[in-house]
Predict the 3D structure of the following.
Amino acid sequence: MNIDNIDLPAPFRVIGVGAGIEGVINKVNSFGLEEVSAEVVKHPYECIPNDGDLIAIIVFTDLEDTANRIANTFHDAGILTIGFSEDADPSCYDSIMLCESRSDYPEIIKTLLQPIVTYCLISYDFEDLKTTLRNSEYFTVKSTSGNKIKDAIEKLQNAFSELEFTCVDNLSLSLYFNPNRTLPLAMNEQASLSQLMSTLPETVNVRWSVNHDESLNGDEIRMSAILSGKEVWKINYGKETQNNTCQ
């Protein structure tokens, strides 16, 4: 038997549960990320952990009992389990995405998975993402772009200036550029990234990567940040989210 010809299960799974979630799953599949599978299920018995599973992302807008039961099965199996719904039960997940528009879900899922399944100039892998999200309870994502690294990072710094970083325990930063851009990426440009990290509180555990993304237009630079922590739900929405609600 030729082992190379065997299709092994994808270790990074995106699982949609309930009505109206097909569009999210279809969009995730359209990204064509290697080692990522995305499917819609209706019953817990349709979706059980595989031996090679590393991540389970559970996305839902209804059928919360079913979704949380599926998540709990993966979580109990030691698989990094991530929830996308305001009705996600924190006890069933390692981390829950803060309330966002459903239309944003695919890009946020891509932000989580892209650095660990695509080529990185500076290494960032599953273990880095697991350290960022494991038992963190909540996370959020910020993304910016510009035609230069400095532009994208300055926009990210402006976004960070509006956040309460004492609520953040872990931060993963990813810089993306098209390897076919007209202007080669100069190493000295990456000094702006080091400067950004130097402004962060010493209590924040920071990881970062530099990645190729051929889908970017021309000389566009994209910066993405994953911020996690047990009190991250406080940083964006002010007093209204202190009741753990979303508007």
